[in-house]
Design goal:
The longest helix has 12 residues. The relative contact order is 0.18. This protein folds into two domains: 151 residues, Rossmann fold; 105 residues, 2-Layer Sandwich (Hypothetical Protein, Haloacid Dehalogenase-like Hydrolase, Chain: A, domain 2). By secondary structure, the protein is of the alpha/beta class.
Length: 268
């Protein structure tokens, strides 16, 4: 099978542990795109953050963002299609987590809502320009969602396991949601049926590429649907053990240019 599209996750995959794209990975993606392969970023980050990384590499303008809740363009940071939870369900999920001592990111369109607790940490330790350019800091995010009738595409929380589990006790019974994660210290709440795999299939329809003609590389639970959807699923060496079970090829880890190794293995 000649694969025509390569989807690449960012954190823990294309980005190393320092959140950098290495020259070797940049070179490999430019090489494979020059061979006529669509190179697509598929990430849990909002469009503004994803676009910042897209500008570092040779990839398609189309991106899968917000964990599959949006298809967007990197050039003008525009959301083309998106999927969201109903306002009240999103508000209830946010209310369950916003007052706990955890960092939260609430995805609403191309904006990311955070509380002051989160902002204190992110302002000091999170240096992604696209994040800070699109953040909205509020004390009561759930109240604003209800008052403004906002539809939430994703609720992300990162912190101590006990605090996360307290929030999940309230969130799990909510209807019409999917819960996943990108590590043991976080969770993501998405609309039911929305994931990177479904968004990638939808993007493939736009590009005329069938799922079996796609390869995808990822490292965590929120990449599982994407790996299940494509013809060639690839897991990073640092991937969750369960994700490796879905892979047909396991690359080196993110600190040893695993993406570049996978690219040359699949497309040389």
């Amino acid at each position: 099978m000649r694969y025509r599209l390569l989807a690449v996750d960012l954190d823990g995959t294309l980005l190393n542990s320092k959140k950098e794209i290495t020259p070797e990975n940049q070179k490999a993606l430019a090489w494979v795109k020059a061979r006529g392969i669509y190179v697509v970023l598929s990430t849990g980050r909002i469009v503004g953050e994803a676009a910042e990384f897209a500008r570092e590499i040779d990839c398609e303008d189309y991106m899968v963002t917000a964990g599959g809740a949006a298809i967007a363009t990197a050039s003008d940071e525009r959301i083309l299609e998106s999927w969201a939870m109903p306002c009240e369900i999103g508000a209830q999920a946010v209310a369950a987590v916003q007052d706990l001592p955890v960092r939260v990111m609430i995805y609403v369109g191309d904006k990311i809502y955070i509380n002051p607790f989160s902002n204190r940490d992110f302002a000091k330790n999170y240096r992604i320009e696209g994040f800070h350019a699109n953040k909205v800091v509020l004390d009561d995010i759930a109240g604003a969602i209800r008052a403004r009738g906002l539809d939430v595409t994703k609720v992300y929380a990162i912190g101590e396991r006990a605090d996360l589990d307290k929030a999940l006790e309230i969130i799990r019974p909510l209807p019409g949601i999917t819960i996943t994660n990108s590590g043991s210290d976080n969770f993501e709440v998405m609309p039911a049926g929305v994931d990177k795999g479904a968004a990638l299939i939808r993007l493939g329809e736009k590009l005329g590429v069938a799922p079996e003609e796609m390869a995808a590389i990822g490292d965590s639970d929120n990449d599982a649907a994407m790996l299940r959807a494509v013809g060639m699923p690839v897991a990073m060496g640092n991937a969750d053990p369960a994700l490796k079970q879905l892979a047909r090829y396991i690359a080196q880890d993110c600190d040893h240019d695993g993406v570049a190794q996978a690219v040359y293995h699949l497309f040389a």
